[in-house]
Amino acid sequence: MLSNYSQQELAQGWHRQAxxxxxxxxxxxxxxxxxxxxxxxxxxxxxxxxxxxxxxHQGNAYQLIHDDSKYNQLTEKQxxxxxxxxxxxxxxxxxRDMNVSASTIRHQKFTFREKAKQAKQYLAMYHxxxxxxxxxxxxxxxxxxxxxxxxxxxxITNAEWQNTVAEYLSETNGQLTxxxxxxxxxxxxxxxxxxxxxxxxxxxxxxxxxxxILKKISDDPVTLRRYLIEYGFMDRTRDGSRYWIxxx
Length: 248
What we know:
The protein is an alpha+beta fold. It has helices at about 5-10, 45-55, 60-65, 75-85, 90-100, 100-130, 160-170, 185-195, 205-215, 220-230, and strands at about 15, 20-25, 30, 35-40, 40-45, 140, 155, 170, 175-180, 205, 235, 245.
């Protein structure tokens, strides 16, 4: 879910965790200490992932413009215009292709610029009102991007998250223990999210291995494994031979 990324991560099309660069649009990842060959050239990780976004996803601008989430309110005509602007076409050429006047294209460009200014001011206001020197206990935690069918029912504050974790999980010497599974979906998501955080993000296991790992957390590892898969925190091959954690 793109809305979970920072403004900088959205603008560049990738995000970084420790020494790994992850594509915002697929499972591709690039390690910081490696060099990657793209066609006849070699690139460090940061440059390689930019090449990947351009070659595989038609560029970051294209993906942002055509994002199909509820947060993208662009009309089809606006998407076409922004796509044309992103290619560097001249206003006169765009006007000819769209069968409108060049002045219409210039007006649309001005409108986009004004909307960008409004968005910058809104973000600054939001930052000052909700993010500076305020009690963080009622700050909403972003819904994990991989959660199946997320909606406003899953909205949860920092305080609720901490209380839910304390109620349903215990931790001794770094080992989580599930006391019981909640009934409410919002709390289930919190518990599964915390359990997922305790597992190696890049791990991959067969059925016996993941069952053994989850058995350390729960007396019913099969049910826990099913919940992790159903809620989108874990995935597996069709034959159930391999399991792994789903990344945002």
